[in-house]
């Protein structure tokens, strides 16, 4: 029995009193092909003369019942901002029903109760499903740094006769069945741009060499053979570091083709919720559309939420989660403070900084900032690029901009104290303490530099503090300095040190940076002081990283590099201080 004949047989099992025209409409086959299949099924003994299923048909079908489902629900759902900042995407409600509950209910309708759910981000919010639906949860502890290939590899059971289900899908009609003959992967029937594969006449997904292809939905069914194959592939690929960011579909690629046959569905039957706009289109009354961040946008720009278009997650920052959006063709940025920032930042002080610099053309235009929540809306700088710290031409221009800003000698009512901030981050770590075994020695060394620093501060002015190369935006012939969260009164020379440690410069590059700022006229005493700042700020950001790690946020080599700055530049600073004291300069 081939697939098309089986599809006809399956329809006759699932729905009663179907005419040949009904079968043609439901399967997408021509009326002639349906008629041919019916005759063939009768001649082979699967249907009797009245078109009813025979015992032979039921004997074949009884072993074709799917056994289980694995639902993938571990990720952040970054594209779903601002909604996904408060709830996992799988738990967003459509028609007052969470996405994942609808999928579970549809699985139950076809007698599938062995359901495993891979969770990660805000995993606690899925716990109620254990009692309500008797599912099992699999924890992906690496959800922040992996994709769903790794999630699926954590499932230890059999993948034979199994549905693989992304948790962000909403189906109008139940996509699951009591009978499945062979493996398949769901794609849209309608062709659209930018898709890698296209369904051919044999239902194979082949490499798309044209403009339009079939959109891949993510839902799949694996029979006994493909279930074993995928299990072996996941064992090979799942725990290799370089594969962690792959989708599970990568394991099914066979040369230029995809390893599963296609099952097509109408676009109107399936909705993939990736963005706020997707939810708005699917359920205009969803309570999750009444999001605090969206309300701020509505109130600030005086528009209804239906005018908010093109929401797009920006590069994940070290402190915040930000997204851009369009209103009436103009682009804006919304900042949502990241986890733990309430302990790290004073938003009232930040708002004061923005008021002071508002009309000076130094930064992007801030339209709104909430001194309590930290929500911020600013105009988007079109055609902007960040500073390339490897380009000394770029760096020279940034140092000129920084020097010009410092020379304005702006004032605010608060100060950024490096050493009290070091203590704050250390306190937030609590009993956990630093992971560095020589931390106490390193800290003692850094604190010993304090007196030299304080003796050699000529004046304190408004300083940026967070002078990361990424915060210098080049727009045509101008440069804008953005993200003033840490700004306060301080020795302006601290910004030079901050730029260097963010750029991860070695001593040679750091000296070049200093020379660019001072145009080759930096005294040994000031250079020694900047070395002190590099060391102190290295410890500062190392402590900051260690605190953020307790919240589940990691920064790879960045944390270790900052701690090395603390140790190495302490040495450079003390050596230069000796020279300065000896020369009396």
What do these coordinates show?
The chain contains 20 helices and 25 strands. It has 585 residues and is α+β, with helices and mostly antiparallel strands. Helix 14 runs parallel beside helix 19 (524-550), helix 17 packs across helix 18 (507-518) and helix 19 runs antiparallel to helix 20 (557-583).
The class by helix and strand makeup works out as alpha+beta
Determine the strand fraction and express it as a percent band: 15-25%
Strand sequence of the main sheet, in spatial order?
5-4-1-6-11-8-14
What's the Cα radius of gyration?
A: 30 Å
Number of helices: 20
What separation lies between the terminal Cα atoms? 93 Å
How helix-rich are the residues, as a percent range? 25-40%
Overall geometric form? elongated
In the predicted model, the low-confidence regions spanning at least 5 consecutive residues are none
User: How would you sum up the major sheet?
Assistant: 7 strands, mixed
Summarize model confidence as the mean pLDDT. Answer: 90
Number of DSSP strands?
A: 25
């Amino acid at each position: 029995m081939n697939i098309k004949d089986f599809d006809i047989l399956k329809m006759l099992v699932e729905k009663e009193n179907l005419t040949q025209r009904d079968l043609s409409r439901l399967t997408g086959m021509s009326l002639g092909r349906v008629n041919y299949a019916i005759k063939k099924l009768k001649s082979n003994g699967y249907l009797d003369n009245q078109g009813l299923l025979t015992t032979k048909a039921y004997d074949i079908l009884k072993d074709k019942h799917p056994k289980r489902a694995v639902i993938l629900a571990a990720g952040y759902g970054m594209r779903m901002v601002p909604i996904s900042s408060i709830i996992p995407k799988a738990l967003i409600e459509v028609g007052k029903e969470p996405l994942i509950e609808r999928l579970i209910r549809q699985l139950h309708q076809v007698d599938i109760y062995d359901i495993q759910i891979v969770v990660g981000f805000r995993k606690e919010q899925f716990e109620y499903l254990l009692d309500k639906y008797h599912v099992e949860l699999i924890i992906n502890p690496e959800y922040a740094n992996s994709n769903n290939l790794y999630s699926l590899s954590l499932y230890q059971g059999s993948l034979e006769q199994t549905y693989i289900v992304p948790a962000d899908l909403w189906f109008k009609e139940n996509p699951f069945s009591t009978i499945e003959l062979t493996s398949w992967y769901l794609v849209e029937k309608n062709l659209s741009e930018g898709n890698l594969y296209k369904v051919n006449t044999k239902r194979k997904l082949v490499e798309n060499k044209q403009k339009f292809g079939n959109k891949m939905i993510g839902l799949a069914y694996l029979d006994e053979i493909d279930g074993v194959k995928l299990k072996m592939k996941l064992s090979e690929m799942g725990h290799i570091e370089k594969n962690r960011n792959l989708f599970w579909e990568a394991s099914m690629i066979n040369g230029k083709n995809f390893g599963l046959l296609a099952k097509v569905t109408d676009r109107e039957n399936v909705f993939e919720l990736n963005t706020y706009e997707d939810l708005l289109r699917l359920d205009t009354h969803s309570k999750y559309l009444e999001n605090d961040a969206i309300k701020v946008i509505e109130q600030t720009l005086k528009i209804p939420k239906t005018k908010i278009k093109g929401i797009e997650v920006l590069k994940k920052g070290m402190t915040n989660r930000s997204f851009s959006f369009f209103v009436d063709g103009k682009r804006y940025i919304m900042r949502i403070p990241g986890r733990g920032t309430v302990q790290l930042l004073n938003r009232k002080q930040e708002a004061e900084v923005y008021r002071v610099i508002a009309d000076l053309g130094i930064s992007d235009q801030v339209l709104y900032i909430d001194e309590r929540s930290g929500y911020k809306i600013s105009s988007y700088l079109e055609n902007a690029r960040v500073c390339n710290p490897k380009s000394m031409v770029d760096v020279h221009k940034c140092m000129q901009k920084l020097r010009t800003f410092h020379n304005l000698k702006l004032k605010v009512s608060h100060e950024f104290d490096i050493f009290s901030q070091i203590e704050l981050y250390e306190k937030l770590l609590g009993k956990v303490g630093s992971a560095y075994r020589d931390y106490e020695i390193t800290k003692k060394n850094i604190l010993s530099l304090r007196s030299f620093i304080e003796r050699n501060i000529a004046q304190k002015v408004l300083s940026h503090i967070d002078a990361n190369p990424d915060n210098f935006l080049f727009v045509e012939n101008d440069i804008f300095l953005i993200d003033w969260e840490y700004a306060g009164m301080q020795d302006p020379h601290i910004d030079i040190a901050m730029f260097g440690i963010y750029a991860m410069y070695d001593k040679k590059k750091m000296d070049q940076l200093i020379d660019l700022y001072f145009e080759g006229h930096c005294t040994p005493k000031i250079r020694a002081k900047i070395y002190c700042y590099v060391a102190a700020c290295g410890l500062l950001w190392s402590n900051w990283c260690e605190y953020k790690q307790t919240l589940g946020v990691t920064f790879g080599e960045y944390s270790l590099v900052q701690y090395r700055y603390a140790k190495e530049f302490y040495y450079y600073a003390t050596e230069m201080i000796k020279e300065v004291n000896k020369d009396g300069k």
